[in-house]
Design goal:
By secondary structure, this protein is α+β, with helices and mostly antiparallel strands. The protein has one domain: Alpha-Beta Plaits (2-Layer Sandwich), CATH 3.30.70. 40% of the residues lie in helices and 20% in strands. It is built from 7 helices and 4 strands. It has a 4-stranded antiparallel β-sheet with strand order 2-3-1-4. The longest helix has 11 residues. The protein is globular and about 35 Å long. The protein starts with a strand and ends with a helix. It binds 2'-deoxyadenosine-5'-diphosphate and magnesium ion (MG). The site of 2'-deoxyadenosine-5'-diphosphate has 9 residues, from loops. GO terms for molecular function: ATP binding; metal ion binding; nucleoside diphosphate kinase activity. Its EC number is 2.7.4.6. Homotetramer. Keywords: ATP-binding, Cytoplasm, Kinase, Magnesium, Metal-binding, Nucleotide metabolism, Nucleotide-binding, Phosphoprotein, Transferase. One of its GO terms (cellular component) is cytoplasm.
Length: 139
């Protein structure tokens, strides 16, 4: 089942120069890059992107963090890429994320209000479609 997913290299990943490493891992797995853009998010865009988390304790710190610098937004395509990228990314908490994953190998727990965990990946076909529409309306 060929799918598309939205991947973001978050501001911590861009700042730390890990964009290439993230792309390398995803391409090495066999997924294809469909679209890529370096951009600075806006509050409006993030409100749509993170609508499911509105009202949670980490929501405001999450939005502030995502506004703290540019992100690299990408669409990848491949067989079961939604689940596959989540597997490459690892658990949300970088300390708990398994070694071998992007977050497990490269993410650090800074004891902050929000997990600065390097990457975002859509978690289901419906969210992938919704998120790709938000970040890449022309796709
Ligand atoms: P994921 O990014 O693994 O899909 P999520 O959708 O549950 O995780 O949350 C979105 C982001 O919000 C996550 O990447 C980091 C932050 N976050 C989630 N839960 C958190 C928590 N309990 N404490 C701090 N930050 C959290
Ligand atoms: Mg999520």
């Amino acid at each position: 089942m060929t799918q598309r997913t939205l991947v973001l290299v978050k501001p911590d990943g861009v700042r730390r120069g890990l964009t290439g490493e993230v792309i390398r891992r995803v391409e090495a797995k066999g997924y294809s890059l469909v679209s890529l853009e370096l951009r600075t998010a806006t509050r409006e865009l993030l409100a749509a992107h993170y609508a499911e988390h509105e009202g949670k304790p980490f929501y405001e710190p999450l939005v502030e963090f995502m506004l703290s610098g540019p992100v690299v937004a990408m669409v990848f395509e491949g067989e079961r890429v939604i689940e596959g990228f989540r597997s490459l990314a690892g658990a949300t908490d970088p300390t708990a994320a398994a070694p071998g994953t992007i977050r497990g190998d490269l993410g650090r727990d800074w004891g902050l209000a929000v997990q600065q965990n390097l990457v975002h990946g859509s978690d289901a076909p419906e969210s992938a479609e919704r998120e790709i529409g938000i970040w890449f309306p022309s796709l």
